[in-house]
Design brief:
The chain is α+β, with helices and mostly antiparallel strands. Helices cover 56% and strands 16% of the residues.
Length: 574
């Protein structure tokens, strides 16, 4: 249905021109077979522009000038409009309002070029070389060239889009093709009019088509070689890296090198939770990262989940297909085409690569094949890097509480000290010890002791800033809390509130060693406070002074209290 307005526009343009712009025609009778030939050539030249690096060169002007000279403005307009319409109809371009402007651009280019030709021909009626009006032809070509650039930028400006910018390479080739139109059109007229007819026209046009097609084949080969090179580089980078972020960076960069997109999500399969979690997001400016959410695996799953279940890629190129597809993407953005391929190791599917575009017909089967090759090479490396990362993280975490362990705390402390030194802000350290914890273990057993530790760890986490502060299980029944941007008075206040919260929140446990009944255990803690740079100028001194404040200032003075380190006395109760 979307094609009807543009088909109507094409026909109305031709009818309107025939009624209101009765330009003079050449005296040559119309040869329908020859005209059909040039029409086919025009369609093919639209389909196969010459690509030189990133520059596309169209050979269409070479034929359209001959059609204008031979058959007049109306025929040239019909050929240009209908050939362009058929090219877009059977290509993978999406019909949008931009094609309306493009049709208008072609019409005005033909109109202005024809006007300039007839005006100059009237002004210089005797500037013929043989039977070829050279100066009017030059006027036609010059007008076509400038109208192309001026009207294109004007339509972009009307639509408030960025103006087209042409490199010197693009501009040079545009000039070359327009200039070549003059001798080639003249040659076509000579061979067509003087004895050779249709055969002569074929002798000229077929080499042009062959050249265009050869350039297309060469460009396809170069593009394939570049894609293979990209995949080889990607594979090489994976073999030497166990860093998940670097592997994901390399994969996204490789995808960008061979494929354009508006959205790229890389999901990892979380088998424990039976869901897909986004581990890398690359989106254009029109999107927001908040649109990426985990996707649950289920019978009515989204597109990415279907890829996991079927272990096969999915490609959708039409908005209607996407609307009707079972399990639309779990993404709240107006995408119109997508492809998703599984990340498969030899043994299992570990994730999904999901690409999407705002336009229809955004992906081809060749794109899917290339992405599958990339995914095959990437899957094992990304999976191994993820496992390595999780192993590294577990090595820094306490298995019982999920907090940082001693090793993890030391790493975070060193970084925190460096950052505090660089930006000159206070860094407070609290060391907390559970009072009489040995008696809890002796009376109720170590399982109960573990429950008390996890209970207090949860209370500590609820009293600190989740994104900024660092909580660790320092050892046994001791915890440490790093508080960046925190002065001595503020740190003391936080510590005392935490002490009161722990004292006020008993933990319910089962007396497994004796009665087997539920009992409430009330806990108290002793807390030592030291602040960088007030009390220490390095990480080791900060820990030593906070620990001394806890033992000397809190433990030895009755427990269940907060003590701040003091330089002269070692540690005193605050």
């Amino acid at each position: 249905m979307r094609l009807y307005p543009f088909l109507g526009l094409t026909m109305l343009t031709i009818i309107f021109t025939a009624l209101f712009f009765p330009f003079p025609y050449m005296n040559t009778p119309i040869d329908s077979i020859a005209l059909l030939l040039f029409f086919i050539v025009s369609v093919l030249l639209n389909a196969y522009p010459i690509r030189l690096k990133e520059t596309y060169v169209s050979l269409v002007p070479l034929v359209h000038l001959f059609i204008f000279l031979q058959y007049g403005f109306l025929i040239e307009l019909m050929v240009s409009q209908i050939s362009l319409f058929l090219f877009i109809l059977f290509s993978q371009y999406q019909w949008k309002i931009k094609h309306f402007f493009f049709h208008c651009l072609i019409f005005w280019m033909s109109l202005m070029s024809a006007l300039s030709y007839y005006v100059v021909e009237a002004m210089f009626p005797y500037t013929l070389i043989g039977d070829i009006p050279l100066i009017p032809i030059v006027a036609y070509i010059a007008t076509s060239f400038f109208t192309n650039h001026v009207i294109l930028n004007w339509t972009l400006w009307i639509r408030r889009l960025p103006l087209s910018t042409f490199t010197w390479e693009e501009l040079r080739w545009n000039v070359v093709t327009h200039c070549l139109a003059i001798p080639i059109s003249a040659l076509l007229i000579v061979v067509y009019e003087y004895g050779f007819g249709l055969f002569g026209a074929l002798v000229i046009t077929i080499p042009i088509l062959i050249i265009a097609y050869i350039f297309k084949l060469v460009n396809d080969v170069e593009e394939a070689n570049q894609q293979l090179k990209t995949i080889h580089e990607l594979t090489s980078s994976f073999t030497s890296e166990l860093n998940l972020e670097k592997n994901l960076d390399a994969l996204v960069q490789a995808i960008q090198d061979i494929q354009t997109y508006d959205m790229c999500y890389i999901y990892r399969l979380n088998e424990k939770r039976q869901q897909l979690d986004p581990i890398r997001i690359d989106v254009r400016d029109t999107f927001h990262r908040r649109y990426a959410t985990s996707e649950t695996l289920s019978s009515d799953a989204g597109i990415a989940s279907q890829v996991i279940q079927k272990t096969k890629p999915i490609i959708i190129n039409r908005e209607t297909e996407l609307y009707l597809a079972k399990g639309r993407p779990n993404i709240n953005v107006p995408i119109k085409s997508l492809m998703a391929v599984p990340l498969k190791t030899k043994e299992e599917v570990v994730g999904v690569i999901f690409l999407a575009k705002l336009k229809e017909n955004g992906f081809s089967k060749k794109d899917v094949t290339l992405l599958e090759i990339m995914a095959h090479h990437a899957a094992t490396s990304i999976h191994n890097a993820y496992i390595y990362q999780q192993t590294e993280r577990r090595a820094l975490k306490d298995e019982l509480t999920g907090l940082f362990n001693y090793r993890g705390f030391e790493q975070r402390l060193e970084k925190a000290i460096e950052h505090a030194q660089q930006f000159e802000y206070p860094l407070a350290l609290l060391i907390l010890d559970i009072d009489y914890f040995k008696e809890v273990n002796d009376q109720f057993g170590h399982l109960t002791g573990n429950k008390v530790i996890t209970h207090i760890a949860t209370l500590i986490q609820s009293h600190v800033r989740q994104e900024e502060d660092v909580v660790a299980r320092y050892g046994g029944e001791e915890f440490t809390i790093l508080l960046p941007h925190t002065s001595q008075d503020t740190a003391y206040g936080i510590a005392d509130r935490l002490r009161v919260a722990i004292q006020s929140a008993p933990v319910s446990v089962t007396d497994d060693l004796h009665s087997g009944k539920e009992v409430l255990i009330r806990n108290t803690v002793s807390i030592g406070v030291a602040v960088y740079p007030l009390h220490a100028d390095d990480a080791l001194s900060l820990v030593r002074h906070a620990d001394r404040a806890m033992y000397v200032g809190a433990k030895q003075r009755g427990r269940n209290r907060v003590a701040v380190y003091e330089q002269n006395e070692g540690g005193t109760s605050a």
